[in-house]
Design goal:
Strands 1, 2, 3, 4, 5, 6, 9, 10, 11 and 12 form a 10-stranded mixed β-sheet that branches. The protein has a two-stranded antiparallel sheet with strand order 7-8. It is 14% helix and 36% strand. The protein is mainly beta and 209 residues long.
Length: 209
Amino acid sequence: MNFEIVFQHPDFVVINKPCGLSVHKDTQDEGFTTRLAKQLSVPQVWLVHRLDKVTSGLLILALNAKSAGTLSQLFAQHRIEKTYIALACAKPKKKQGWIKGDMQKARRGAWKLCQSLENPAVTQFSSYGIMPNLRLFILRPKTGKTHQLRVAMKSLGSPILGDTLYAGLASDRTYLHAYALRFCYQGEEFYLKATPTMGNWPITFPLDL
């Protein structure tokens, strides 16, 4: 299976990662980056950020070591604006605002959000009712913590549909998708979007975010 190429630059490529794909080798015979390099007919690609296995959407990979360093620095400095979309069945404690708190490891590989703010995960969100018992969430993480958005949604009382690790209702997939990226690279502005290719999203794309 070839990966969907959303955008290709001499220094990097952006793909629309399917849900269920680990960016790490896991138990696969051939790692994800090796497969993508073969598809692009290049010697190597570099991961500069990550998406959870259950999360689909935009993923940037560098095509040389120098751009890998530059792009990794942009992510580390939070200079790449990320917008995710998610579906949830439960009504949140509030319809929009901020979710902030330190994150600690919990059981079974999960994390939990704490009230302390020493090194907090920070997420801006808004939500919209789209069907009875179904809401669309627009999530803009300002930090890059492991499972940040999944934990944030649970803290709102609205775990992501399909995210059973965080008490979401069982479904055909975890309904979390990295929809848009906005950043500046070498003086050029980029704004990229990717429509989910898996699952039943009861909304019309493209979204005007």
